[in-house]
Amino acid sequence: MLPNTSQRVPEQTDEEINRQIEEEIRNNVALYAGCDSEAIERRLRELDEEWDIERTLEFNAAALATTAILFGLIGKKRWLLLAGTVTGFLAQHALQGWCPPVPLFRRLGFRTEREIDRERYALKALRGDFKDLQRDGESTSLDQVDAVLAAVR
């Protein structure tokens, strides 16, 4: 059975690395707990720019495969084996959440989108983005839906 999308990388990551990443999230949120909205907004912009592990792996695979194809076209055909290997590992990552660069990138601190989002939403909660989003009764108006979507944006 294939792991679910949001947990496949953490499930394939050494538990100590997962613990370090969780501790980093906790420390970052604690650091901004006493800050004003402007400081939190700056951190949220930084999080928007952070490359998650998926983007990093995709770029790495594309760069390696493209380089291997170019070398295969202008030099030795055996370079094409590297392109095939890289794309095979990328497929393995899509299915299982693991490929050879994952442990290295995780040790370097690359987080999953879900891990980045945990920090993002904790900071938004600290800033008060969710305080006025209570449901009123049984029905939900489109204004309430729009407010919720704006808060999680």
Structure report:
The chain contains eight helices and no strands. 13% of the residues are buried. With 153 residues, the chain is an all-alpha fold.
What are its keywords?
153 residues, elongated, 8 helices, mainly alpha, 2 domains
List the helices and strands and how they pair.
Elements: H1 8-11, H2 15-32, H3 37-49, H4 53-74, H5 79-96, H6 101-107, H7 113-127, H8 142-152
Helix pairs in contact: 2-7, 3-7, 4-5
Concise overview:
The protein is mainly α and 153 residues long.
The number of E-state strands comes to 0
Instruction: Output the number of helix runs.
Output: 8
The total tally of domains equals 2
Low-confidence stretches: none
What oligomeric state is this? single chain
